[in-house]
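User: I'm preparing a small set of examples for a lab meeting where we compare how different chains pack in three dimensions. I only have the primary sequence for this one, and I'd like the structure in token form so I can line it up with the others. Please keep the answer compact; I'll paste it straight into my notes.
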Amino acid sequence: MTNESGSKPRASKWRFIAIEALLLVVIVAGIRAWQQRDMVSGPAPALQGMTLAGRPYKLPAHPERPVLVHFWATWCPICSAEQGSIAAIAHDHPNVITIAMQSGKTEQVVRFMEKNEIAFPVVNDADGSISNSWGVHAVPASFIIAPDGQIRFVEVGYTTGMGLRLRLWLAGI
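Assistant: Understood. Below is the structure token output for the 173-residue chain.
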């Protein structure tokens, strides 16, 4: 059906836009579900290792404040885009630990961080064993652990600093 000018009615145009938007949401949700298919939920798995700064790290079973556990890789361009946000959160929030997933030997990760002026606590997961125990297949991936030791939020892909801060706050209330 067309109007006097020969064009389709506006309702038809908006219906088409709504269907396209819905399809996009379904596709994005499907991709996220696939990326998160094996990621852990419930109680946070054990996490311990030596940071690049040479300090031992062990995720507390019941941290005083929410913890951000962030998986990233030196070879991941999306991780690079997110690093400023992670560094800012780590500066403001003491309970942040990051895991460099399959990014090479410790010396290589240290050089990458120095070259890119990155300063946040990192445990190198050169062989992917930590990532596997958390079910991480895609990076960046972020877990927010609440004070009761439960995983409250899981995000895969780019997440804004504001979004991560909001999730940390929500996990603490």
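A couple of notes for your slides: The radius of gyration is 20 Å. The mean pLDDT is 90.

User: Perfect, thanks.
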